Amino acid sequence: MKFQAEIDIMPRKEILDPQGKAVKLGLGNLGISDVNDVRVGKRIVMSLDAENLAEAKQKTETACEKLLANMIVEEYTYKINLEI
Question: Which of these, 57, 64, 63, 62, lies nearest to 41 by C-alpha position?
Fold first, then answer.
């Protein structure tokens, strides 16, 4: 079966996000001052083959924990859909 994993990786809330701070400052310079906080992360869309949803989840978690996310400073969430 073919699956598509949509993975969102964000800095942990306890970690300072200098890129987010820079974006917030830039928004203020554009006159958009009602923004309380900005966090910048990354979104990864991965197509994969797996026997079932459980295997697709396991492969996605392995990819996130061993390659895609820096588990010390980032956290991830994902959603898996069946590809048609």
Answer: 64
Parse the chain into domains and list their residue ranges. 2-82
Contact 50, 80 (CB under 8 A): no
The 10s digit of each residue's pLDDT in 29-77 is 999 999 999 999 999 999 999 999 999 999 999 999 999 999 999 999 9
User: Look-up: residue for tokens 């994969």?
Assistant: 48
Look up the pTM and report it: 0.88
Reported as type and span, the H/E element at residue 58 is helix 53-63
Q: In this structure, which topology does domain 2-82 adopt according to CATH?
A: Mth169; Chain: A , (3.30.1280)
